Amino acid sequence: xxxxxxxxxxxxxxxxxxxxxxxxxxxxxxxxxxxxxxxxxxxxxxxxxxxxxxxxxxxxxxxxxxxxxxxxxxxxxxxxxxxxxxxxxxxxxxxxxxxxxxxxxxxxxxxxxxxxxxxxxxxxxxxxxxxxxxxxxxxxxxxxxxxxxxxxxxxxxxxxxxxxxxxxxxxxxxxxxxxxxxxxxxxxxxxxxxxxxxxxxxxxxxxxxx
Length: 210
Description:
The structure is a single chain. The chain is an alpha/beta fold. The protein has three domains: 2-47, no CATH class; 60-151, no CATH class; 161-207. Helices cover 50% and strands 20% of the residues. The protein has eight helices and seven strands, in the order αααβββββαβαβααα. It has helices spanning 2-7, 10-21, 27-47, 112-124, 141-150, 160-174, 178-193, 197-207, and strands spanning 60-71, 75-86, 90-91, 99-100, 104-109, 133-137, 155-158. Strand 3 and strand 4 form a beta hairpin. Helix 6 (160-174) packs antiparallel against helix 7.
């Protein structure tokens, strides 16, 4: 019942149980059971460290993001998701897209304050990593404030996708010619992928005078 309840809507779960097991269970009962076991495992899922210890030559990465979802009970509500993984779990095969072999997720329906408390507790279980703790995010204010307050020695990285969004916004405001705009932006992206962040910043400072 719990398995069906977490797959789709409770109404669809009701149909699946009736079709596969020839038993009728009310939508309300499916909700109660699913909610009960969801609450029961939430502590284990969100708070227990499941990754192996971080070695001295490894870094630990933390990704965090937030969104809004439409709930039946409270309308639009905040939801936050965090992901933790180690540098040794980042695999790269020649000519193929990289992937992460092991990671841990944490999710919270509600404000970021409760979410960050859970994340703080989880991250602390892997020890004091200093600059080997790396946060990757979209640069949201709540993430910036959280990481600077809780982990002042950690490294914060604005993810490549959102950097490119800002680059396109900037280049559209500077270049009238679309071809020049694209050429300039593509060059900055290449610099970023090579780790030349300071070069990109210098180019922005120079070209913003336009």
